Amino acid sequence: MTATLLKEAGPQPAAPADHERKRRARRRARVIALAFVFPALLLLGALVVYPVLFSVGRSFFDASGDRFVGGDNYTEMFRDPATLTAVRNTAIWVVVAPTLLTGLGLVLAVLVEKIRWATAFKLLLFMPMAVSFLAAGIIFRLAYDEDPEKGVLNAAAVSVHDAFKDASSYPNARARDGQGLTKAADGSYGTTAAASPGDTVGLGLVGVRAEDLPGDARPAYPASGRKASADELRGVVYLDFTRGGGGEQGKVDRTESGLPGMKAEAVRDGKAVASATTAADGSFRFQGLDPGSYTVRLPASNFAAPYEGISWLGPALVTPAIIGAYLWIWTGFAMVLIGAGLAALPRDALEAARMDGANEWQIFRRITVPLLAPVLTVVFVTLVINVMKVFDLVYIIAPGPVQEDATVLATQMWLVSFGGGNNQGLGSALGVLLLLLVIPAMVFNVRRFRGSQR
């Protein structure tokens, strides 16, 4: 009877001892959790919070750190041309690099699904991620070298150029002073004395090393003695230099070589009326000339400097060149992340679109891209955060003379603080600016992650 009455009365309040025991258990759990979290919090505070607070405080002091200057460092920061260049280049990086990487990653992720050796292809593209930025910078510094003998890109550019346009064989050739040839403003050489049909002229040049002569070059002496017919003008272009000394300047000696492959023109009244190319012995001839006086001209194309390629690391191209190196490293990262999102897409939507007659481009544009929008956004924002902090590639690839043309906020902060400027107040202000630019992207990314988890 008593038990029945207690049951009908409902649950009895817990004894004070039970409440105290539960309170102690909760307190003990909090202490244990805090004990586990404390080392991480301590490390986070020492490596993140303290440096940020110190940099903010340091940005209000002068270079020595002894005098409070308020916002002067922030004012000076936007007056300095180098800092404005860094802001401009950082903006270029933020717009160009993440956009190209996200686009390339998307295209490659879609294409990789359609090839047999997808795993091997992904491995090859992702492999540059295993290379440090220092090593990648050194690799691309060599690849971009202006000397075609060292830089692979310029070697390829020179090969393609020379395949379509012949290079001059005598870029260093020149005429001796007072030996019958004068140099024009356009780089060509012409005879000072007039010649008429039936004459033979000798055009002596120097500045060509014997080892640089073409393999088919022959002695010029036999050609210099040939007589021209009444309607032709003959000549010989030769190297006016005798090995071992001796010989006579301005005259073809027996051991002197002809210069084959040179273009020569007969000029009358300022116009070229005939042209010829020198033979192996340096000889040439103009036939069918009308009576009168002519000058012989060697066009500037005979002496044009060889094509040396593209100045990849010059002021105009240094930033795009470094962005190209960055793309080489991070394309695999973007492709793998987007590929993971692509693998999670509902295949029934794609198959339904195909059954309705949609082609692959329509499926890609109207179904694949919209469904991948959350993944693409996360990849894009992650890359934006990353490019804002880029330092290694810019510092290593850009040569000293163009370092200021390629500088970004991270490199400018280092240069101002430690790279010769020794103004850590201004450098701290640049660091705070970089932090303020990164925070919105970080907050956006965190919210996206939380939204995807819900």
UniProtKB/TrEMBL annotation:
Domain ABC transmembrane type-1 intervals: 87-445
One Pfam family cited in the UniProt record for this chain: BPD_transp_1
Keyword Oxidoreductase: no
The UniProt record lists the keyword Cell membrane: yes
Cell compartment(s), UniProt: Cell membrane
Membrane topology: Multi-pass membrane protein
Transmembrane segments: 31-53, 91-111, 123-144, 325-346, 367-385, 425-446
Keywords annotated in UniProt: Cell membrane, Membrane, Transmembrane, Transmembrane helix, Transport
Region Disordered, residue ranges: 1-22
Record-stated family: Belongs to the binding-protein-dependent transport system permease family.
Protein name (Swiss-Prot/TrEMBL): ABC transporter permease subunit
